[in-house]
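Deliverable D2.4 — example input (structure tokens):
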């Protein structure tokens, strides 16, 4: 008796796959091998080309990298470094709202921490961005000292290009969450802060980066 296996498709899906195959351009063996060895990149290309944006709302991110240990480590901090006082790092400017929101206080010390970095691939608000990763927001929070450390140690991992393209982080003061964004401008790093509940839309075309601690249960 014949049984269906995981590679059995319904007739409509089979016809679609056959149509895609017949429409593929001529590809050299070397290029084919490159796609074979990098299926995540191939999946991203196919997703962007074939999947309508409205069907991607539950997959906001393309995983850029779960950094290797030697590249991902944020050292232990004493929590005393504050963004508002770090003009030597953020030479492009510091949003005065850090002071307005009273975010110039010390944080708790932190242990060595590893981080994940994601790339936003659809339009989304802050609430959608972070809740898509984990509804327990405390698992996504970083301290100001950790953000400063990341910017110092991995400047090339920040979203490049200026024009509002940013790398965002989640912080918390008392019981309120805020989003910190770092932009790489011609004058240096510019850092801003917004309330987590603000109705700001991050546009997919800007490919913003999102950095969070590795407490979110993703296996790589």
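Example output (designed residues):
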């Amino acid at each position: 008796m014949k049984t269906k296996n995981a590679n059995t498709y319904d007739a409509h899906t089979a016809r679609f796959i056959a149509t895609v195959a017949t429409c593929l351009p001529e590809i050299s063996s070397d290029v084919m091998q490159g796609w074979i060895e990098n299926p995540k990149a191939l999946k991203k290309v196919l997703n962007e080309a074939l999947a309508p944006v409205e069907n991607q709302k539950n997959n906001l991110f393309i995983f850029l990298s779960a950094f290797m240990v030697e590249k991902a480590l944020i050292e232990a901090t004493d929590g005393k470094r504050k963004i508002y006082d770090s003009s030597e790092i953020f030479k492009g400017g510091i949003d005065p709202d850090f002071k307005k929101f009273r975010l110039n206080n010390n944080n708790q010390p932190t242990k060595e921490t590893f981080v994940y970095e994601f790339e936003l691939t659809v339009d989304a608000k802050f609430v959608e961005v972070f809740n898509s990763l984990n509804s327990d927001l405390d698992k996504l929070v970083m301290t100001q000292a950790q953000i400063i450390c990341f910017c110092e140690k991995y400047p090339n991992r920040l979203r490049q290009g200026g024009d509002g393209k940013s790398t965002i982080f989640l912080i918390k003061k008392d019981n309120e969450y805020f989003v910190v964004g770092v932009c790489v401008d011609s004058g240096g790093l510019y850092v801003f802060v917004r309330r987590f509940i603000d109705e700001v839309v991050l546009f997919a075309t800007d490919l913003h980066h999102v950095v969070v601690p590795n407490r979110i249960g993703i296996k790589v």
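The chain has a mean pLDDT of 82.
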